[in-house]
Amino acid sequence: MPKKIIFTDKAPAPIGPYSQAVMINDMLYVSGQIALKEAETGDVKSEARQVMENIGHILTAAGLTYAHIVKSSIFLKKMDDFALVNEVYGAYFENEPPARETVQVAKLPKDVNVEISVIAVI
After folding, report:
1. What is the rounded (10 degree) CA torsion for 119, 54, 42, 40?
2. Mind telling me which CDD domains this protein's record contains (predicted)?
3. Residue 111, Cβ neighbours under 10 Å: how many?
């Protein structure tokens, strides 16, 4: 099965040589999403909310929902923000949340506070 590039203008366009998402063999790989405008305020909860909305728009473009997500990766500038991001993130998964890891990193693109990538399955 050939890969299919997923793109929506409702989420930020890639800022480098990558796709918003790629679908292959009933799996959707969503590139790490950041919140560009919200990053200017430094409010990690606003950033996390916008990131999750970006992911939602990409899922919709692929014909999927948050319920299709089986794995996510969260990258934080500061692990001290874990509880705040977790609060926002958890609101998108009422039942059966996906597998996940959360790691602190030295720096993120555009100096944002949080980046999230996901894998979803049809």
Report:
1. 130
2. YjgF_YER057c_UK114_family
3. 11
Paired residues of 122 in beta bridges: none
| Cα gap 116→89, rounded to integer Å | 10
pLDDT, tens digit, 9 for 90 and up, residues 72-87: 999 999 999 999 999 9
Q: Work out the pLDDT band at 42, boundaries 50, 70, 90.
A: confident
Q: List residues bridging with 72 in a β-sheet.
A: 100, 118
pLDDT at 1 over 80: no
Split at pLDDT 50, 70, 90, the class of 31 is: very high
What is the DSSP pairing of strand 21-24 with strand 4-6?
antiparallel
Q: How many residues does the chain have?
A: 122
All domains of the chain in start order, with CATH: 4-121 (3.30.1330.40)
